[in-house]
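Sample pair:
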Amino acid sequence: MPYLFAIGSALHRSQMERRLMGNRPFTRAVLSGYRLAFRGKSLERRGAVADLLLDPSGQVPGLLYELPESTVRHVDRAEAVERGLYEPFDVQVATDDGATHPAVAYRLADPQSAPGIPNTAYLMQMRQGYREWGLDEGILDAALAALP
């Protein structure tokens, strides 16, 4: 079964339990070599959304899910892959126990997406997810502080 590395609002427990049809996270994980950023504009989220940008010194915390292939296709729809908002890409993540796993993550499909301010409700949903899973909120704060 494939692994999904979830960030952003996908850290919000109740949202993901609905979206992933009851599947629960396998464990917490960290993606190295990237940083969290807010870019683009989502009509659904009414503002910029979470994105992963290459950064050799960066790290992004998230959750690792082990999912059936059919559920991964459902995630593609939820992430608006067919509408061109996000695109899946392959990553390697490290779990709390030091093990590494190949996973699929999502990033904005348009590499030229401008930085932007996320909607307050979206940001609060992300922050709640960070707290629910005991993730470093400093990463979220740094992404906000980097906005123009």
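The chain is about 25% helix and 40% strand.
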